[in-house]
Amino acid sequence: MATVSPAVLIAAVAVAGPFLxxxxxxxxxxxxxxxxxxxAWLGGDRIGQDVxxxxxxxxxxxxxxxxxxAGLVTTxxxxxxxxxxxxxxxxxxxxxxxxxxxxxxxxxxxxxxxLSWPESGTAGLITVAxxxxxxxxxxxxxxxxxxxxxxxxxxxxxxxxxxxxxLVFRELLPNLRHTLLTQLGLRxxxxxxxxxxVSFLQLPASLGAANWAVMVRExxxxxxxxxxxxxxxxxxxxxxxxxxxxxVTAFAxxxxx
Length: 257
Prior knowledge:
mainly alpha, 11 helices, about 70% helix, elongated, BP-dependent_transpt_permease, MetI-like_sf, ABC transporter permease subunit, membrane
């Protein structure tokens, strides 16, 4: 419970933040990089807007988008890895394709795709993040599922003529619970990194009126004037990624990797 509580608290604040914010996201509190005060706990940003309100408004988009990407990557990888473990011929092609896709760095792939098709927006970001994130995870699932695929109960199910869907969903995946949860946590951290990078580079993706990565980039020039404008969103990104990964790993019954 102690491991899960920080993740629940941070996720709840990120989702409910717009309702908890003391002011609108563009509320002015004074001059640029205004010092923290009683009316503005974290001071002002580069144009004098309330950092606290921006911080509370800027987490939900990052959290939701990262969770969607992590869920899709884990699901696709689990299906591909399980199929590769069950069927040797198909598995060889899946593993070769995965090895080829892993040669392209995720950030470079996202830059190429989203700069070429800027109108793709959030849907394009999700698509390319899933495509570049699935291969490595699929190899992990294939390795984890290979031993289960040779187990007696799986061989018996295949001898009965069970269909591939039954073998994957009823025989393999229930026995890969630890791998599923661990990969889900790791893919969430990777998704946070990707989404934050996209926001930091100002690539076209909708994350709400404000988001933490953009706050870091826009306020970096005033870090000596009001450090909270940069450190607060940076710390929020790190805490969100680490706490959620720790919580998911705790459910898996394993130590964080």
